[in-house]
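Following up on my earlier thread - several people asked me to post the actual chain instead of describing it. Fair enough. Here it is, all 103 residues.
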Amino acid sequence: AGSDNVATATFVLENDSDSEAEEVPQLYLTFPDSAREPPAQLKGFTRISLAPHEKKQVTFSLEARDVSTWSTSTHSWQQTHGQFDIDVGASSCDLRLHASTEL
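Reply from S.P.:
Thanks for posting it. Predicted structure:
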């Protein structure tokens, strides 16, 4: 496990209320079908405090290990290649942003 950044997801989080707020945005990653991995795996989250009407840029970084699967034949992590779906939201049932990327 290294710090090999393979992708980043950046978005703006906005508090559109008149009160202070805290949010915990969560990043979910779905592997290509060929990887035969469960969908929507939680790969990142962070707690953000926002003043009334404040906007903050949030960035999640994905490392090679985040897009890898365990190989039982080589007994090591193997980076998966193909189209990944990235979803961000307040929970797995409240996904508000979606993107796809080829890795």
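The radius of gyration is 16 Å. That should answer part of your original question.
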